[in-house]
């Protein structure tokens, strides 16, 4: 019976409610997203300027 129910909701709009529940759980955790963004910018900032500015011809 569980398999039949899972197949039916996939086509219906029931699965949308499940996704909304998961998204709401991640919404209350904004500190994690901000930390990842800062880490990504800091790591992508230093290594980008040196390589292209040092040997732009070699990269080609």
Report the C-alpha radius of gyration, rounded.
22 Å
Largest sheet: none
Distance between the termini: 60 Å
Question: In percent, how much strand structure appears in the residues?
Answer: under 5%
- Topology as a string of helices (H) and strands (E): HHHHH
Content-based structural category: mainly alpha
Given the C-alpha coordinates, what overall shape results? Answer: elongated
What count of helical segments does DSSP give?
A: 5
Number of DSSP E strands:
0
Regions with little confidence, pLDDT below 50 for 5+ residues: none
Helicity range: over 70%
Overall pLDDT level:
57
Region (Disordered): 21-60
Plain-language structure description:
With 60 residues, the protein is mainly α. It is built from 5 helices and no strands. It has helices spanning 2-11, 14-26, 30-44, 50-54, 56-59. The protein starts with a helix and ends with a helix. 78% of the residues lie in helices and 0% in strands.
Keywords:
60 residues, mainly alpha, 5 helices, 78% helix
Write the layout of secondary structure elements.
Layout: H1 2-11, H2 14-26, H3 30-44, H4 50-54, H5 56-59
